[in-house]
Amino acid sequence: MMKSGTEQTRVVSPAEWVAARKELLKKEKEFSRLRDELSRQRRELPWEKVTKAYVFEGPKGKETLADLFGDRSQLIVYHFMMGPEWKEGCPSCSFISDHIDGSVVHLAARDVRLVVVSRAPLKQIEAFKRRMGWKFQWVSSNETDFNYDYQVSMTKEELAKGEVYYNYAMQQFPSDERPGTSVFYKDAAGNIFHTYSSYSRGLDILIGAYNWLDLTPKGRDEEGLKHGMAWVRHHDKYDAGYQVDATAEYVQPAKTTDAGCCSGEHKS
Predict the structure, then answer these.
(1) How many Cβ atoms from other residues are within 10 Å of residue 56's Cβ?
(2) In the list 42, 52, 184, 210, which could disulfide-bond 75, CB 3.0-4.6 Å?
């Protein structure tokens, strides 16, 4: 698909290979220690109390943010890019979401609930979820300010200006919806606190397939792609005719109809 670094790779004796591998192992261990330290600092971030009431639409009806915790004290929300009237969810968010179902039971064992949230109405969400074969909890924030408050949906005013506040800075973004993950904690008294949010490349850590690719000679093989994730498809769209257009930019999924496209518009 793309030129890779394998063309320049040296072929050496087994002894030389082991020596080179040991040198890299030193750096890998250093990176692991740095990652552990960064994770420690992340856990030491101050918290902010959530004072706004959010009510989501789920398969069993209305659910508050507190309800999303279930019987756990920690909640991870993945902000999935799927806006009102979209025909399907974002391919990149779907790539991340393909990794969720296998994690849910393990997270629950560590006092964590993971829930996916989108601004699309529940009926749209449920249809796409069935198509993808996913089982995880996925609710609609269509009637709340939740997506706007956590930087993952564009208001009409932002749309008019062409810039959005995303990843803690003003920038352009090619879609009405944006990806992210937010973490919350609920204490024994029922108080809820926002402890962390991450966006953009900060979400790479959630993609197990990327970690596998990083081990291979070609790596992610995204060099030369105008949009790095242009190769990603919904998992039911890889076929014998699969090709990647290196010049393609991100394109927001089409809407089912222009009518009702502002369903769930920000009300503040």
Answers:
(1) 23
(2) 184
